[in-house]
Design a protein that fits this description.
mainly alpha, single chain, three-stranded parallel beta sheet, two-stranded parallel ribbon
């Protein structure tokens, strides 16, 4: 049975890059896996958020708002198990157990840590250094068969597999299966509207660099109208945009929202300039995002109901997690 596990940090409003690059694929996975009798677990990684300074009220609010955004995008708590990580203490308990299995050298080699350590690693929290072990616990706890990963997360999944292998070997058990990466070829990498070489990000100081899921219709159209492009017309193949990053990005966004190939977009707009392409893209973006925004607005009018959905999901997740945690405790002698 396929069991997919993935999480997202509750760090504020989702943007178009989050939706097209990950959440839309989650929705497709949810429906496909549910149809085959498998399970999808999607969680708000609020424990991971603690690796950086937090404002408690903001973390609590962001968790509810992110959950509402996921539901608005199509994650169905009746089909998938949706919860916030902190409501399932087994995540923390297994992470501590696996800290005894993970090696310092493994964590020192993690790319994100090396980047920090080369600058201000000594000022970072212990949690930031060790959070890949918590990530391993997140997926091993549920004996995940597959984990959706982008290129920047493949190293973390490899670490989880290393930890699982060492634990199984050290204690002579076959407790943790090795999760496989699930890389969707359809998942596009959405770039900034102001710089086609930089990923769209909620941390970008310019709000014009991204389209937020809460942006109104006029704001969406304005941001796309002002998106950086060039003066040349569109060629008839996507390969013809190899040296035009901003043009590639807008075509990629159009194709992802329309559920067509990038070359199909090129065929439709070959020879046309961005004066014709941008209005068409804006119309498509508004039509795609308006229903999501409307659902999100309604969901946030009753935050208690969103919290109840997370509580119910945590109950289901806890039921799956408990046997694995108990087996891990027995394997290392914590249960007599």
């Amino acid at each position: 049975m396929m069991r997919i596990v993935s999480g997202i940090q509750p760090t504020g409003n989702l943007h178009l890059g989050n939706y097209l690059g990950a959440i839309k694929q989650w929705v497709a996975m949810q429906d496909e896996v549910a149809a085959t009798g498998g399970e999808c677990l999607f969680f708000l990684a609020d424990l991971h958020a603690l690796t950086q300074p937090v404002v408690p009220a903001e973390l609590a609010a962001n968790t509810i708002e992110m959950a509402a955004a996921l539901i608005a995008c199509g994650i169905d708590p009746a089909k998938a198990i949706l919860f916030n990580q902190a409501r399932v203490p087994a995540h923390s308990e297994l992470a501590w157990i696996l800290n005894g299995t993970a090696r310092m050298g493994w964590l020192n080699r993690m790319t994100q840590w090396k980047d920090k350590a080369g600058k201000d690693g000594s000022s970072q929290s212990v949690g930031y250094f060790a959070y890949p072990v918590l990530q391993a616990a997140d997926v091993l706890l549920y004996k995940a068969s597959h984990v959706p990963v982008g290129e920047d997360q493949k190293q973390h999944l490899e670490l989880a597999r290393d930890i699982a292998t060492k634990f199984n070997t050290d204690f002579g058990v076959e407790l943790f299966p090795l999760p496989e990466p699930l890389i969707s070829k359809a998942a596009p990498r959405i770039m900034s509207l102001r710089d086609g070489t930089a990923k769209m990000s909620k941390s970008d100081p310019s709000d014009m660099a991204r389209i937020n899921l809460v942006d109104d219709d006029d704001m969406i159209a304005q941001k796309l109208r002002k998106a950086k492009t060039d003066a040349a017309p569109l060629p008839d193949t996507f390969a013809g945009l190899a040296d035009r990053p901003e043009a590639r990005n807008l075509v990629t966004i159009y194709a992802a929202m329309a559920d067509v190939t990038v070359d199909a977009v090129m065929t439709d707009f070959a020879g046309k300039g961005f004066g014709a392409f941008k209005p068409a893209l804006a119309d498509l973006a508004v039509a795609t995002l308006r229903p999501i925004r409307d659902r999100l607005t309604r969901l946030l009018e009753d935050r208690g109901a969103v919290a109840d959905a997370l509580i119910a999901g945590a109950g289901r997740a806890s039921g799956l997690a408990a046997p694995t945690l108990a087996d891990a405790q027995r394997a290392i002698g914590l249960q007599i």
